[in-house]
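Service request form, structural biology core

Requester: graduate student, group of Dr. S.
Request type: structure prediction, single chain
Budget code: on file
Notes: please return the result as structure tokens.

Sequence provided:
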Amino acid sequence: MIADHWTPELLTLGESMVSLRSAGPLSAGGALGMHVAGAESNVAVGVARLGHRVAWAGVVGADPHGEFILRQLRGEGIGVQHREDAGRSTGVMFLEQRTADITRAFYYRAGSAGSTLDRDDVDRVFRSGARVLHLTGITAALSREARRAVEYAAARAAGEGLDVSLDVNYRSKLWSRDEARAVLTPLARHASILIASEDELGLVAAEPGSAGTSGDAEPAMAAELLHRGVREVVVKRGAAGAGVHTTAGRWERPAVPVTSIDTVGAGDAFTAGYLSALLDGEDVAGRLQRGALAGAFAVSTAGDWEGLPRRGELALLGDTPSGTTQR
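Core staff response, request fulfilled:
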């Protein structure tokens, strides 16, 4: 648990799993690398590495997988507020690098310890007094208990004046788009910062029926979300960069050009950079810039979060030529 005098700037809650990574087809066998995976803990690591006090809350099993997760997160300087469920196992996923361009995830998380996150867990967490609460749609998809916990956390945080960051993070293996829309659209009303990819905006805002392309629909959907009280609508565009809609205008930022070797976790890295800059008081352009830099580190290194930068390393991708060796 976090010491009483330690107050995090950012709090996030959700399920962290053990990820077993394969460099090739799983059906062919071979060595597997053991990692920690989870969108919320990815963001926690990214923000902590950029110099902020961060707490992660969740539930793990009383098993070696849970111990591994807690050790890894604590090793990153993250305050861990966890509950241990002796009757359930920590979730596991297999990540297969099927081809150079296709990565496939196989989840073994149904009925996991992490899916039992509940309102009591949220109540324990909120004693920490964070400035920003970061949530994702993934946790809301895990179980009815977890969904209610996320809804309660978002409502409570908004009511207490915290910035609520909600990353849609739609996972088709967990629920359908219709199921996600029914939960995430009302949840978004508590968000001050709504983060989504271009194809996820329709899960939290009504898609204009007359729009011919996603580019045409995006401004209308963003305007609807802003009208409903969201302060910033952040759109992740992958290799095309990112954009932000606010009532004051629209900002765009291209991606930082790097050699991409692993795109898993890139969106979480961008979010971590964006929220870190928010905590530092940067304007929208500055938040986009740091998000783009963090995302570039993620895609140009292997792992969900292992290659994320420390604050002093952000400049490495600024003016450094490709292929540079620092001596």
